[in-house]
Amino acid sequence: MTYALLCLPFLAAAAALTLLSARRPRFGRRMAASAVAALVLLGLTAVFDNAMIAAGLFTYPESHLIGVKVGLAPIEDFAYPLSAAFAVPAILVLLPERRRR
């Protein structure tokens, strides 16, 4: 199994959760904030994954990668921060509101 196949469920879940939250208030504002968060997380992932791979902290078997890289980091590494940037706000808005005491 390739790392790209492992990423697909996370990306699909993030997309589904985001679509489910589309009818909640301030969807556009939330998407803008998620996009900014995604850019920041992707930038941090690029910097730190490259640094850790260059330092020899870990490697990836080439046979499990699709071959596209950002520096030394495989493109598959960027699926998780992208998923998190959109899924976490969607989950929070989909959860029932707590009653204030």
From TrEMBL:
Q: How does it sit in the membrane?
A: Multi-pass membrane protein
- Location(s) in or outside the cell: Membrane
Superkingdom of origin organism? Bacteria
Keyword Methyltransferase attributed: no
Biological pathway: Carotenoid biosynthesis
The reply on keyword tRNA processing is: no
Q: Where are the transmembrane segments?
A: 6-23, 35-58, 78-95
Q: What is this protein called?
A: Lycopene cyclase domain-containing protein
Q: Name the species this protein comes from.
A: Glycomyces mayteni
